[in-house]
Write a structure and sequence with these properties.
This protein is an alpha+beta fold and 210 residues long. The protein is 23% helix and 33% strand. Strand 11 and strand 12 form a beta hairpin.
């Protein structure tokens, strides 16, 4: 079974700089902490719509990945891209192919995931999001989905890594069907999914999985 990782709230103060050892030893709980070249970055708690969409999309991906024995899916797992800097990110959703299972050690990823999903929120720091885009590409994340939500619904930008740079493979407008390059045969409508209608949110082979 796929394990969903959750964090617990905490008010402990963080130092301005952290080594990877300090980060890994941190037990301050469930703030979403990421390390940008040793600088701890704390993200605000996502809003209800963000958490709902994240949960629903994660559920669909888990069912698809498990049914096809492709690997594993997680919510907010530490992804350590460079232990020397240190550089550690915590994507909203992560998929790791079974071919790269050795990257999972002690409940963390040491190296790039095959897919990272980020749902942008108003509280996200532009500097952090720009660095994520560059670093995910540079360190070998194969696919990167950026999801933005407005009054019309979720918009998806799907990026594919080609030689250490992301190329936009497709842009999915709210209400359109999304056929991810990473999951051949899966078709999902994020606008319908966001409303909680699993059966209507998928079609094709995925219909029997939800």
């Amino acid at each position: 079974m796929t394990t969903v990782l959750r964090r617990k709230p905490s008010r402990a103060r963080l130092p301005r700089r952290m080594t990877l050892a300090q980060y890994l030893a941190d037990t301050s709980g469930e703030r979403k902490i990421e390390l940008l070249d040793g600088e701890p970055i704390v993200s605000p708690q996502p809003r209800a719509w963000h958490q709902r969409l994240e949960y629903l999309l994660e559920h669909v991906l888990q069912r698809w990945v498990e049914a096809h024995q492709l690997g594993e899916v997680w919510h907010e797992i530490d992804m350590i891209l460079d232990p020397r800097k240190p550089l550690t990110y915590v994507p909203d959703i992560v998929f790791l192919a079974k071919e790269h299972a050795e990257r999972l050690r002690d409940g963390r990823l040491y190296g790039p995931a095959d897919l990272c999903v980020e749902i942008e929120s108003p509280g996200d720091r532009p500097r952090l999001m720009r660095r994520k885009y560059r670093d995910y590409a540079r360190y070998g994340v194969a696919w990167y989905w950026i999801i933005r939500v407005d009054e019309d619904g979720p918009f998806v930008e799907e990026n594919e890594n080609r030689g250490g740079e992301f190329v936009v493979r497709q842009e999915i407008e709210p209400g359109e069907w999304f056929a991810p390059g990473a999951f051949t045969g899966l078709q999902v409508n994020l606008a319908v999914l966001a409303s909680g209608e699993f059966k209507r949110a998928v079609r094709g082979k995925a219909k029997r999985l939800v």
